[in-house]
């Protein structure tokens, strides 16, 4: 008798960067874990025919805003993990900017309880400071005991260097990474004076307040020195500038415990997206609030530097920074619009488009979506052994993709409650066909598209 977590995926092109496996093989998942990867497997299990498709480990997102508790009108754990599954993600790290803030064991427990049976594995990220206010450290040891996998005040950098130093000391002792949002508000501007996009020719043309790339690198440089001082494991969220990429490369060369991520939108879009300027003939739509994100979209030279840093391994992971918002949050004056892009369901399409443009290879993209993020945060501890791989005994998580599929972004079809994307109407290359979580088929595009 087969288990509901048994599955045989037959005839796909396997790409498992962690184990250096690539070729046309079958994957057998038994009792929710990888049982075998080999040619012409036979098993008493349901069969998924992956002929002509690529089969990879399930994607891992280090940076997801699920909004629950407190902002369920923007997203819920249920809707957000369905969106994750549609994007090939089987593991998402849920950021702490909830209400109440994920700064206590009680809130972490609430999130984990609500995530039971979700369409993706949810790993909580605890706040560094109480209420993410940057003043008083959260109970970091209690958060670790409750199950957080990292600490972050994401959306807010730790402005006070003394507080940051103490946080790094505690994180080093607790052996968990700190994921830092690098934005020096003394340079970027605070409150109503905060720059709302990159400071440059486009912001000048639009008459919008800008923030320079220096706002990111100033805090990033400080934190590298603090990591060296304390021995903390430091991760940089959503790197967006050429100088940041260079600084991360140098820190790694010096042997520091540094890792970094980049978002699909910082690889693919530029600050011109704010002005509605695209490359595929869309009608201009100036002051596009869907392109308002923190850190801001940068000019092409910065995007190119991030692509190069991802290709060479300076940047360890692609993370979506999925930030869903309700329509009123974006349908307002640019100055008052919320920051963020709903990105789980378009991430692979953006990356696949970069592959089609020969800016990245498919193997590199899959590595940075699977074992790259796992290694960056050492997520394969304890119950998650083998995460991000197709090794025997690893979680039976798979992303089954069609790298050549061309499709048009239509946010009305998103599973996410957040329809806020500057990619509406864009044609992307590469799409997730199915997602398997612990042997369960949690998304199957072919079933959804089948005629009634």
Walk me through this protein's architecture.
This protein has 452 residues and is of the alpha/beta class. It contains 15 helices and 17 strands. It has helices spanning 77-86, 105-114, 140-146, 161-174, 185-188, 201-206, 214-230, 242-253, 264-268, 300-312, 327-330, 347-356, 362-369, 371-377, 445-449, and strands spanning 7-16, 21-30, 33-38, 47-49, 54-57, 59-64, 89-94, 121-124, 178-180, 197-198, 210-211, 234-236, 258-262, 317-318, 398-408, 427-437, 440-444. The strands form four sheets. Strands 1, 2, 3, 4, 5, 15, 16 and 17 form an eight-stranded mixed β-sheet that branches. Helix 1 links the parallel strand 6 (59-64) and strand 7 (89-94). Helix 2 (105-114) packs parallel to helix 3, helix 7 (214-230) packs parallel to helix 8 and helix 8 (242-253) packs parallel to helix 10 (300-312). It is globular and about 65 Å long.
Flag low-confidence runs.
none
Radius of gyration: 21 Å
User: Major β-sheet, in short?
Assistant: 8 strands, mixed
- Beta-strand proportion: 15-25%
Q: Which tags fit this structure?
A:
eight-stranded mixed sheet; 15 helices; alpha/beta; four-stranded parallel sheet
Q: In terms of topology, how is this protein built?
A:
Layout: E1 7-16, E2 21-30, E3 33-38, E4 47-49, E5 54-57, E6 59-64, H1 77-86, E7 89-94, H2 105-114, E8 121-124, H3 140-146, H4 161-174, E9 178-180, H5 185-188, E10 197-198, H6 201-206, E11 210-211, H7 214-230, E12 234-236, H8 242-253, E13 258-262, H9 264-268, H10 300-312, E14 317-318, H11 327-330, H12 347-356, H13 362-369, H14 371-377, E15 398-408, E16 427-437, E17 440-444, H15 445-449
Parallel strand pairs: 1-4, 1-5, 6-7, 7-8, 9-12, 10-11, 12-13, 13-14
Antiparallel strand pairs: 1-2, 2-3, 5-15, 15-16, 16-17
């Amino acid at each position: 008798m087969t288990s509901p977590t048994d599955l045989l995926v037959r005839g796909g092109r396997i790409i498992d960067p962690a184990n250096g496996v690539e070729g046309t093989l079958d994957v057998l998942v038994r009792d929710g874990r990888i049982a075998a990867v080999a040619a012409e497997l036979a098993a008493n299990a349901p069969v998924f025919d992956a002929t002509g498709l690529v089969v990879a480990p399930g994607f891992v997102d280090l940076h997801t805003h699920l909004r629950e508790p407190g902002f369920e009108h923007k997203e819920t754990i249920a809707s957000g993990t369905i969106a994750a599954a549609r994007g090939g993600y089987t593991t998402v790290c849920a950021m702490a900017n909830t209400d109440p803030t994920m700064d206590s064991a009680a809130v972490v427990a609430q999130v984990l309880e609500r995530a039971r049976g979700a369409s993706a594995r949810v790993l909580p990220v605890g706040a560094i400071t109480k209420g993410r206010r940057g003043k008083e450290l959260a109970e970091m040891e209690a958060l670790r005991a409750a199950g957080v996998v990292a600490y972050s005040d994401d959306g807010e950098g730790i402005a006070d260097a003394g507080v940051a130093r103490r946080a790094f000391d505690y994180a080093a002792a607790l052996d968990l990474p700190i994921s830092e949002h690098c934005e020096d508000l003394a340079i970027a501007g605070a409150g109503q004076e905060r720059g709302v996009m990159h400071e440059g020719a486009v912001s000048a043309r639009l008459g919008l307040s800008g923030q320079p790339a220096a706002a990111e690198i100033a805090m990033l440089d400080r934190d590298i020195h603090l990591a060296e001082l304390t021995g903390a494991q430091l991760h940089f969220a959503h790197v967006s500038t050429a100088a940041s990429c260079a600084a991360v490369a140098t820190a790694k060369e010096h042997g520091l415990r540094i890792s970094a991520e980049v978002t699909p939108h910082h690889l693919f879009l530029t600050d011109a997206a704010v002005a509605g300027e695209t490359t595929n003939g869309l009608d201009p739509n100036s002051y596009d609030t869907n392109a308002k994100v923190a850190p801001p979209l940068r000019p092409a030279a910065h995007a190119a530097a991030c692509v190069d840093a991802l290709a060479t391994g300076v940047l360890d992971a692609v993370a979506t920074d999925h930030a869903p918002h309700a329509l009123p949050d974006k349908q307002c004056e640019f100055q008052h619009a919320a920051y963020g892009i709903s990105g789980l369901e378009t991430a692979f399409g953006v990356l696949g488009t970069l592959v089609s443009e020969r800016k990245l290879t498919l193997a590199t993209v899959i590595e940075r979506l699977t074992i790259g993020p796992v290694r960056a945060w050492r997520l394969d501890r304890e119950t998650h052994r083998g995460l991000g791989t197709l090794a025997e005994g690893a979680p039976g998580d798979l992303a089954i993709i069609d790298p050549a599929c061309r499709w048009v972004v239509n946010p009305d079809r998103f599973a996410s409650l957040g329809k806020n994307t500057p990619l509406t109407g864009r044609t992307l290359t590469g799409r997730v066909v199915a997602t398997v979580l612990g042997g369960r088929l949690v998304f199957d595009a072919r079933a959804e598209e089948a005629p009634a």
